[in-house]
TrEMBL record:
It comes from the Eukaryota. SUPFAM superfamilies: RmlC-like cupins. The keyword Phosphoprotein does not apply. Pfam families: Cupin_1 (PF00190). This is Cupin type-1 domain-containing protein. Belongs to the 11S seed storage protein (globulins) family. Residues 3-157, 195-340 form the Cupin type-1 domain. GO terms for molecular function: nutrient reservoir activity.
Length: 357
């Protein structure tokens, strides 16, 4: 059965004047269900507050825009209050309770990508809010809440019924939220835009890897990833993931083109990529991307805390360079001169190629 691989935009799920929550649905994007991947975005306006909740999936949160504050409570741990900014990646393992707040004029936008293999519904996150109109306590009887919290009936009604917000609310301008602590960022957040580069190709592109070496919490979440920045008109050479990790990619900035080749050498996708698009490449399918003149950045999460392992089909370290000349001649049915010409091209180690002169 053929699966639609075309890039998709998120759709609004809920929100009010404090902000909005958007998600990619497996009913419209079947690869989410096929790959057990969830994807969503949170956008908070000034003074917007995303109420405390936990999820049925492990995730990586990536700050696409703005500055804000995040509160994180891991199982049997104290609350961590982090200052967050554009480029931050935060690992959220199972059971983590989180809240998000924006006190700035610029909208705070956070991307969530994660593994739904243990979720209630494959391909989508289910969030359980601790408070609000759909909060956990609204489902319990007054007696249960009263006994659990040691409150009288009137206090329980106020405690449970005062908040009419659904997931996101807007706080008063003068409301004082907890101040972030610098030490709370250690081990919890990693800024991909300020980190040393793992790959840097002049007029080609740059890569920052997201793994347990730089963010140990990824081990608990079972996820990894990278931030890739492709220069204008540069190309990411054809390659495929040779491990079992599945990749889900979000276009952060710019635009470009993508081609994916699958089984039997069939091109299964040729499309334009734009900022806001999400796409998934099936395991072992070969993918290549070419940036527009403005360049293109993307953030990828893989379902493994290790760095992804790729086999390149171009460049000095490509599989072609590893094969012996006679094998290449026989494989392509070409003479020795043609094989030498092929082998002599693209002698750099680059996975990014600059545009032709």
């Amino acid at each position: 059965m053929e699966v639609d691989l075309s890039p998709k935009l998120a759709k609004k799920v809920h929100g009010d004047n404090g902000g909005s929550y958007h998600a990619w649905s497996p009913s419209e994007f079947p690869m989410l269900r096929e790959g057990n991947i969830g994807a969503a975005k949170l956008a908070l306006e000034k003074n917007g507050f995303a109420l405390p909740c936990y999820s049925d999936s492990s995730k990586v949160a990536y700050v696409l825009q703005g500055n804000g504050v995040a509160g994180i409570v891991l199982p049997e741990s104290e609350e961590k209050v982090l200052a967050i900014k554009k480029g931050d990646a935060i690992a959220l393992p199972f059971g983590a309770v989180t809240w998000w707040y924006n006190k700035e004029d610029t909208e705070l936008v956070v991307l969530f990508l994660g593994d739904t293999s243990k979720a209630h519904r494959a391909g989508e996150f289910t969030d359980f809010f601790l408070t609000g109109s759909n909060g956990i306590f609204t489902g319990f009887s007054t007696e249960v809440v009263s006994r659990a919290c040691d409150l009288d009936e009137n206090a329980v009604k106020a405690f449970v019924g005062n908040h009419s917000g659904n997931g996101i609310v807007k706080l008063d301008e003068n409301f004082e939220m907890p101040e972030p602590k610098k030490e709370h960022r250690f081990g919890m957040a990693f800024n991909c835009e300020e980190a040393p580069l793992d790959v840097d190709i002049k007029k080609g592109g740059r890569v920052v890897l997201l793994n347990t070496n730089v963010l140990p919490m990824l081990g608990e979440a079972g996820l990894g990833g990278d931030l890739v920045r492709l220069d204008g008109s540069a190309m990411c050479s054809p390659g495929y993931s040779c491990d079992s990790a599945l990749q889900v990619t979000y276009i952060v900035r710019g635009s470009g083109r993508i081609q994916v080749v699958g089984v039997d050498g069939r091109r299964v996708l040729e499309s334009i990529l734009k900022a806001g698009n999400l796409f998934i490449v099936p395991r072992f399918f070969v993918v290549s991307k070419i940036a527009s003149p403005e360049g293109m950045d993307w953030f990828t999460v893989i379902t493994s805390p290790k760095s992804p392992t790729f086999i390149q089909l171009a460049g000095r370290t490509s599989v072609w360079k590893a094969l012996s000349p006679s094998v290449l001649q026989a494989s392509f049915d070409v003479d020795a001169d043609t094989e030498k010409l092929f082998r002599s091209k693209r002698t750099s180690e680059a996975i990014f190629f600059s545009p032709p002169n």
